[in-house]
Amino acid sequence: MNEAVFTTRNLTKIYLTGDVEVRALNGVDSELYGGELAVLLGPSGSGKSTFLNIVGGLDRPTSGQVTFRDQDLATLSDGKLTLYRRNHVGFVFQFYNLIPSLTAWENVALVTEVADNPMPPEEALAMVDMEKRMTHFPAQLSGGEQQRVAIARAIAKRPEVLLCDEPTGALDSKTGVIVLEALTRINRELGTTTAIITHNAAIRNIAHRVISFIDGKIAEVQVNDQRIEPSEVVW
Amino acid sequence: MIMNMLDRKLVRDFVRLWAQSLAIAMVLACGVATLILSVGAYRSLEETRATFYDRYRFATVFASAVRAPRHLKSRIADIPDVLSSELRIAEPVLIDVEGMREPASGMAISLPEFRDPAVNRLYLRRGRLPEPERSSEVAVVETFADAHGFEPGDSFEAIFNGRKQRLNIVGVVLSPEYIYAIGPGDMVPDPRRFGIFFMPEKVMSGLFDMEGAFNDVVLTAARDADTRVIIDRLDEILKPYGGGGAYDREDQISHAFLDAELDQLNAMATVIPPIFLAVAAFLVNMILSRLIALDREQIGLLKALGYRNLTVGMHYAKLVILISLAGILIGSVSGWWLGRGLTRIYAQFYSFPFLIFRQSVDLYFLAGGVSIAAAVAGAAKSIWSSVTLPPAVAMRPPAPTTYRNTFVGALQRIGVFSQLSIMAFRHLLRWPVRSFLTMLGTSMSVALLITSLFSYDSIDYMIDAIFFRADRQDATITFSVDRGPQALIAAAAMPGVMRAEPYRMTPVNLRHGHRELRMSLTGVTPDSDLSRVLDLDLFPVAAPENGVILSERVASKLKLEPGMTVEVELLERDKRLEDVTVVGVAQSYIGLNAYMHLDALDRLLRDGRQISGARISVDEAMLDELYDVIKSTPVISSIALQGVSRDRFRATIEENITTMSTIYVTLAVIITFGVIYNSARIQLSERARELASLRVFGFTKAEVSSVLIIELALIVLAAQPVGWLVGYGLSWSVMQGLQSDLFRVPLIIYTSTYATASLVVIAAAVASVLIVRRRVDHLDLIRVLKTRE
Ligand SMILES: Nc1ncnc2c1ncn2[C@@H]1O[C@H](COP(=O)(O)OP(=O)(O)OP(=O)(O)O)[C@@H](O)[C@H]1O
Ligand SMILES: [Mg+2]
């Protein structure tokens, strides 16, 4: 096994809404290894998105440690955290989150402009089979096409980690497969450490490891001996 | 150069929001334009005047005497700090122009021979100056020449000492002394009826029996000289020759009027532009906070992608700056254009030989800087919230707006209002600050309109007070020197004169403590019916046996009240000092005035009954005969015709006001449009889903629009009374800027003015709502419902 890219120790996140205290994460100890493809499973509200956001430098833990290589993300300044996201992390969201006033190509270029060693936007788009729709605005694209542009945007900067929060959540099975194929291909060809949150337990079999969340804790980590191709996933 | 992606988004946002951006830019442009217009016109006028004064040696001190010997020249020149002096002969005359029924007033002034005057030089517009020895040659001022179409070669008649003489015009000139040329007894310049002309000194001294003598002196003083000292020395020198009452440039009529005009421009520059800048800041705030609320997820995304907070903040700041730049551009160009136009109007109204446009770069930078600052200040809070928004929070859609049920719930239970009205009420109360500011912005338009229209009312009121209550005579005749009581009998006996009332005027300095004012003290008879002294409520009061009645401005400037004593310095009586009791305060809108019983004034001056002139009422049918007699009566030096004066006054003022109010109405409409259109658009964008859903449920287009319209209607209605109040306040402050020793404008606002202002604003609001309504009608239901809020 490769070395750990992320390590969390006793990671805790508490939300205070009025008087109610919600423990979104309740002491999570975990690792994500270089080059692996991990699937995060768990019931709604179990803390998956919270975990991914903290690991991706979008949010800070209430307590506990989260390290990226040797860097403690919990104590980084806002500016450092921004640089961390800019240089190392690619995000894919459930609702694509493209900028409506920019074309597909421009949405990707938005990222390559500020990255250190990006690939050309058209190359990233080609990896998700979207090079023919480069000049289209998000409103002119279907959901799956938008999601693929979002993936192209995430990978264009050649990130070390790719964090995907329900990338297929809003898609039908056929488009979902296309998106997953794009993700596995990138994981394989570029060696990008990839974490995918999903509600679809069938997807678990495409991963190296499956991490299951329950009530803000990791309940189980399962290592797949046998991985299947996205096209074999029974939706 | 390839634009980076954020800037592309910026440009597309700008284009998408063009209508709203333009509305804001226009409001900003108004602020910029009014600033450039008023400050620009102020500077141009100021500079033009200063240059004219400087090049043509405008005097700093003025004095007159009855008949003083020319050998005083060296004593006058020896007064410390006096740079140069000119001894002149200046005489009021009556002018008879062919084809003009009534006599005109004129002023004949001597020109030194074989040299330019050392003080108050003439600018030669056409022709040449009169040659010495040529007894009939004159140069006339341009205003008079233009009013009659005179060119060199034309001629007119003037009455010197009762002798009629034909004068040939050889030149047309301008004088720094008569930039604003107002005839005796007039309230505004009437170039047709007031002519100044210049004749060789030798000719003048022959005509007026002034060989080796002068009756008028003008001098220039060193820049930092104390003119009070010079005035005292000059009075001392001229005292034995009927002199005294030398005065400073500040008291010179033409100069004082220009000062008042400049003050007015200044008042405009300080009151109006800040309103526009504040409204623009509010509008920027409104649309930017909405834009950032809509862009919430994109902001989160940008940050998730690794964009710095500063970069994100700058992105929105740039949008604001882009809007400001558009506003500054429009404002600068129109301000420049309007400023040029306004300066030209001034140049026409006042006689300047040339115009200097002061288009200083600093002004544009100032206006631009202030506008950007105002816009960015309006945007600051929204931009800050975009910067501080944590990315993880931003990506989650905002919690649904929580509405409170308190007050509106009660309305609902009454059951009078439809669900749609209830929606409107709720929305209104959900954003109390924004609703309040929108209301305030709208009320500013109402206020601006009132501010621009109220002067009609005030002038109307003033004209009524002056011409129909106070000075109801048909004409005022002035004698060249004070006369005995038989002059009144002679005046009453002139053809067509139905009633004649005497008056006496003497120049005085009124003093109270260290405060001092120079003016004329007027003696009137208690049974005067044509010309009356009015109390503060505009009721006539008879002058009491003793004591002096002061006009309100005099009383307040000298801090005097009835019962107190004022020190009267009699300028024509060797500056003798007398203490007189203040017995009343009178209303007077023009000039500085003090009134006394004619007998009391006679006693004060100790020379028996003397009168300076008479106010007369005339039988219209006999006017021609009367004019003929007046033209041939040597003792009458001028005649002021009340009716002509009144018409001229009304015409001049209304012309000025009409120009200004056209500008202001445009400005007010732009504000209303900017405010109402923007709030309607923002409401539409916030509630597109809600409104589209209503359409899906089967509400008609009209019903759906009514949700928006009800809310805006409530805001516009609430804005009216507030606007009236603010309008009153603004009018008051503008009026303070208009007050001068020459004019005191009363603050009168008729109900119809409030109504007009409200109607204009409501009409502009309806127009902008209708435009937005078209958008409601064309709501793309599917598209709106598909987008995630
Ligand atoms: N900003 C917040 N304020 C308060 N509570 C929050 C906040 N964000 C998340 N939570 C709570 O934290 C818990 C974990 O949320 P999280 O979004 O991580 O769940 P999840 O596993 O991603 O669920 P889902 O599968 O539905 O997306 C939930 O109970 C949620 O209500
Ligand atoms: Mg989630």
Annotation field: number of helices of chain A: 6
**Gross morphology of chain A:** globular
By CATH, the superfamily of chain A comes out as P-loop containing nucleotide triphosphate hydrolases
- Could you tell me the CATH topology label of chain A: Rossmann fold
CATH class of chain A: Alpha Beta
Largest interface: A-B, 29 and 25 residues
Give a list of the ligands.
adenosine-5'-triphosphate, magnesium ion
The secondary structure category of chain A is: alpha/beta
Largest sheet: number of strands, sense, barrel closure of chain A = 6 strands, mixed
CATH architecture assignment name of chain A: 3-Layer(aba) Sandwich
Report strand % of chain A.
25-35%
The largest sheet of chain B has its strands arranged as: 3-4-9-6-8-7
**Could you tell me how far the N terminus lies from the C terminus of chain A, measured between alpha carbons in angstroms?**
30 Å
The ordered H/E elements of chain A are EEEHEEHEHHHEHEEE
Low-confidence stretches of chain A: none
Task: Indicate the structural class of chain B.
Answer: alpha+beta
The low-pLDDT segments of chain B are: none
How would you describe the overall organization of this protein?
The complex is a heterodimer of chains A (235) and B (789). Chain A has 235 residues and is an alpha/beta fold. Chain A has one domain: 3-Layer(aba) Sandwich (Rossmann fold), CATH 3.40.50. Chain A is built from six helices and ten strands. In chain A, the strands form two sheets. A six-stranded mixed sheet of chain A has the order 6-7-8-3-9-10, with helices on both faces. Chain A has a four-stranded antiparallel sheet with strand order 2-1-4-5, with helices on one face. In chain A, β4 and β5 (71-72) form a beta hairpin. In chain A, α3 runs parallel beside α5 (143-155), α4 (121-127) packs across α5 and α5 runs parallel beside α6 (173-190). The longest helix of chain A has 18 residues, at 173-190. The two termini of chain A are 30 Å apart. The mean pLDDT of chain A is 88. In chain B, the strands form three sheets. In chain B, strands 3-4-9-6-8-7 form a six-stranded mixed β-barrel. In chain B, α7 (253-294) crosses α8 (296-304) and α14 (432-470) packs antiparallel against α19. Chain B starts with a helix and ends with a helix. The mean pLDDT of chain B is 85. Classes of the chains: A alpha/beta (235), B alpha+beta (789). Chains A and B meet through α2 and α3 of A and α1, α8 and α11 of B. The structure holds adenosine-5'-triphosphate and magnesium ion. Magnesium ion binds at residues 48-49, 165 of chain A. Chain A: Keywords: ATP-binding, Cell inner membrane, Cell membrane, Membrane, Nucleotide-binding, Translocase, Transport. Chain A: Residues 6-235 form the ABC transporter domain.
